[in-house]
Design brief:
CBS_dom, transmembrane helix, 30 helices, three-stranded mixed beta sheet, mainly alpha, 11 strands
Length: about 775
């Protein structure tokens, strides 16, 4: 190595006598590990971007040298699309498998298929020859547990046995889920979207997107959803997709060695996750853009589109619902909506906003309690208790017993002539002879009224239990429970409006558009609007929410009602607090997330925020030519800063540049191993000229100019904090130095900015825990 160093600098024998020949600027070779960041640290976006530009420049220059290099440069250019293809295929496959497994295990709680135990109830009766259309849910091959064990399907004994086994299966599934999460992958719990948002903003959480997390999250998601708890699989599917993205990034050095590029891939993976969760590819791209991503260049938009397309295509090939659709809730309504209906739609928007506020406040209070009391020490017990309560209360009510997705599907459905649901128990007019599609409004029968009571009880149950379920130590999504709350409320309102229109068609509001014998009101549409309103109230999505909803249901002409409800729910919820549920959880966990949507309006200056303060010891700095290796090592050992400013001398404090702690550590370690004569008393030089060794007995100097960042971001002490916050947000900085006339005064880190913002909002600045 020694000889290499001498020859690479082209040193003459006389230089070697002076000792400068051995002086090797070994940084021409990249260090192992140097680009990696510590766990729970923020990446430096500017640095990652400039490193990628350098890499690109090198590849372009080399590609002109030979055909082989040209092929390599083309492969490099295509690697992004290849990664997207792989992510889409794996995400689509996992989503299909999860859907099929959830279907089967949800039905397993009630009974089993005798012809093939791995068939769900629906598949079992499809394959049967003895199924009639009217009794399509009943077939001899499908037996409930009581019938299988005792031979009786009716009576109190059978009901009690079925009840008991339903609760037992639910407890078993949730116990397995929480145990697997606890033992193998603690990061697999929750929805994952708050953490994904934080990671995409440039934070490092090692293992959060690892292989174990992917495996355990996929398995436990099936168990958690099948247990009948009030949670969905949509949020966790975004986490699963991002784990797939991270997995494929490690195959390509372009992404594995550059944290900024990796985040572009993860943004696109999030889009693929929503694409398969809802069967809404365009909604997925917009969700990634509006809700999750921090940095979203145009190139990422195209790649997200491609990944979402491939994922949706793969899911369609698997066809988990057997209806050749990507979604469970596909509906087709035949009636238009009328202007007067905007009033109930907007009222549903208000309900969605109020429910969102109630849910966020209740859930955050409960999660805070979990963090600060003994409750947090017993996650398994908590999950078991909540599952027990959920199962015991859910079984008696047919609307809470079934899976939440099926419930929403039934609430969205329009009552056709062939519907057997209780919600469609209307009194038919015997003289009616009309086409099947266009059934006129009819008076509600006894089935509809009993269904309304059950739905009202289901609504109260869902509202309360979801607050306690979200945030437990199992994978738990929020989209489906929120939509269920809205769909129940919407269906109730829809039936009420429909009956008013039928009984009072001579009222002035109904006169223009609702004649007797016409089909005016579609209760299913109200359920759809309510679902959108409640989901918007909780997450504060608008554009992506409306697109997801109309892709989800195929209801293209109902965009205006959906938009009205989404905007109203956002306004109402924002009146009580600006944060959605994900931002609230980010705050609760103390992640260093600078939200682009927050406005900073206070009139403070950089000098008010910078460290060190008056009472604190002076800033830890390095000088350009008078610090020894031992001084540097002591400084690294005694402090935990991410980097150090380099100044001309301690007297002048004139700033030269900034050096990262990790690079400094690795550089000194490498120099001690590979460069002769570097000892503790060697002087470290950050200057451009080669240092002169005065006497032969002096130790060999160490030149570290190459790891010095000569253009660190600086602001003057009188820069308004509004500007500083904006710079941190838009450039994704880790730290920024404060100077006056070139003299270094202090430093502002991302954590200082977040603490200052918390202080200005009268919150506890120490709540921002991470670095």
């Amino acid at each position: 190595m020694d000889g290499d160093g001498a020859s690479s600098t082209g040193a003459t024998p006389s230089e070697e006598m002076n000792g400068t020949g051995n002086l090797m600027d070994f940084l021409d070779e990249p260090f192992p590990d140097v680009s990696t960041y510590e766990d729970f640290h923020t990446i430096d976006w500017l640095r990652e971007k400039s490193r990628d530009t350098d890499r690109h420049r090198k590849i372009t220059t080399k590609s002109k040298e030979s055909y082989w290099e040209l092929i390599k440069s083309l492969l490099d250019a295509w690697s992004g699309w290849v990664v997207m293809l792989l992510i889409g295929m794996l995400t689509g496959t996992l989503a299909g498998v999860i859907d099929l497994a959830v279907d089967w295990m949800t039905d397993l709680k009630e009974g089993v298929c005798l012809s093939a135990f791995y068939y769900s109830h629906e598949q079992c009766c499809w394959t049967s020859n003895e199924t009639t259309f009217d009794d399509r849910d009943k077939c001899p091959q499908w037996q409930k547990w009581a019938e299988l064990m005792t031979g009786h399907s009716e009576g109190a004994g059978a009901y009690v046995l079925n009840y008991f086994l339903y609760v037992l299966w639910a407890l078993l599934f949730s116990f397995l889920a929480v145990s697997l999460v606890r033992v193998f992958a603690p990061y697999a719990c929750g929805s994952g979207i708050p953490e994904i948002k934080t990671i995409l903003s440039g934070f490092i959480i090692r293992g959060y997107l690892g292989k174990w997390t992917l495996l355990i999250k996929t398995v436990t998601l099936v168990l958690a959803v099948s247990s009948g708890l009030s949670l969905g699989k949509e949020g966790p599917l975004v986490h699963v997709a991002c784990c797939c993205g991270n997995l494929f990034c490690s195959l390509f050095s372009k992404y594995s060695k550059n944290e900024g590029k990796r985040r572009e891939v993860l943004s696109a993976a999030a889009a693929a996750g929503v694409s398969v969760a809802f069967g809404a590819p365009i909604g997925g791209v917009l969700f990634s853009l509006e809700e999750v991503s921090y940095y979203f260049p145009l190139k990422t938009l195209w790649r997200s589109f491609f990944a979402a397309l491939v994922a949706a295509f793969t899911l369609r090939a698997i066809n988990p619902f057997g209806n050749s659709r990507l979604v469970l809730f596909y509906v087709e309504y035949h009636t238009p909506w009328y202007m007067a209906e905007l009033v109930p739609f907007i009222l549903l928007g208000v309900f969605g906003g109020l429910w969102g506020t109630l849910f966020i406040r209740g859930n955050i209070a409960w999660c805070r309690r979990r963090k600060t009391t003994l409750l947090g020490k017993y996650p398994v017990l908590e999950v078991i208790v909540i599952t027990g309560i959920t199962a015991v209360l859910a079984f008696p009510n047919p609307y809470t017993r079934r899976s939440t997705s099926e419930l929403i599907s039934e609430l969205f459905n329009d009552c056709g002539a062939l519907e057997s649901s209780q919600l469609c128990d209307y009194v038919n007019n015997p003289n009616m002879s009309r086409p099947v599609d266009d059934i006129p409004d009819r008076p509600a029968g006894p089935g509809v009224y009993s269904a309304l009571w059950q739905l009202a009880l289901a609504l109260i149950f869902k509202i309360v239990i979801t607050i306690f379920t979200f945030g437990m130590k199992i994978p738990s999504g929020l989209f489906i429970p929120s939509m269920a709350v809205g769909a129940i409320a919407g269906r109730i309102v829809g039936i009420a409006v429909e009956q008013m229109a039928y009984h009072h068609h001579d009222w002035i509001i109904f006169k223009n558009w609702c004649r007797p014998g016409a089909d005016c009101v579609t209760p299913g549409l109200y359920a759809m609007v309510g679902a959108a309103a409640c989901l918007g109230g909780v997450t504060r999505m608008t554009v992506s929410l409306v697109v997801i909803m109309f892709e989800l249901t195929g209801g293209l002409e109902y965009i205006v009602p959906l938009m009205a409800a989404a905007v109203t729910s956002k306004w109402v919820a924002d009146a009580f607090g600006k944060e959605g549920i994900y931002e609230s959880h980010i705050q609760l966990n103390g992640y260093p997330y600078l939200d682009v949507r927050d406005e900073f309006t206070h009139r403070t200056l950089a000098t008010d925020v910078m460290r060190p303060r008056r009472s604190e010891p002076p800033l830890a700095v390095l000088t350009q030519d008078s610090t020894t290796v031992e001084d540097v090592e002591t400084l690294i050992k005694d402090t935990d800063y991410n980097g150090f400013p380099v100044v001309v001398s301690r007297e002048s404090e004139r700033l030269i540049g900034f050096v990262q702690r990790r690079e400094l550590t690795v550089a000194i370690k490498t120099a001690r191993q590979k460069q002769d004569g570097v000892v503790s008393s060697s002087v470290v030089y950050f200057t451009e000229d080669n240092p002169q060794v005065a006497e032969a007995c002096d130790p060999q100097p160490l030149k570290l100019r190459r790891i010095l960042n000569l253009s660190p971001f600086t602001v003057t002490d009188h820069t308004p904090m509004e500007t500083v916050v904006d710079i941190f947000r838009k450039l994704g900085l880790r730290q920024c130095l404060v100077t006056r006339s070139g003299r270094l005064l202090g430093i502002i880190t991302k954590k200082d900015v977040l603490r200052h913002m918390a202080q200005m909002m009268n919150q506890d600045p120490e709540s921002i825990m991470f670095n």
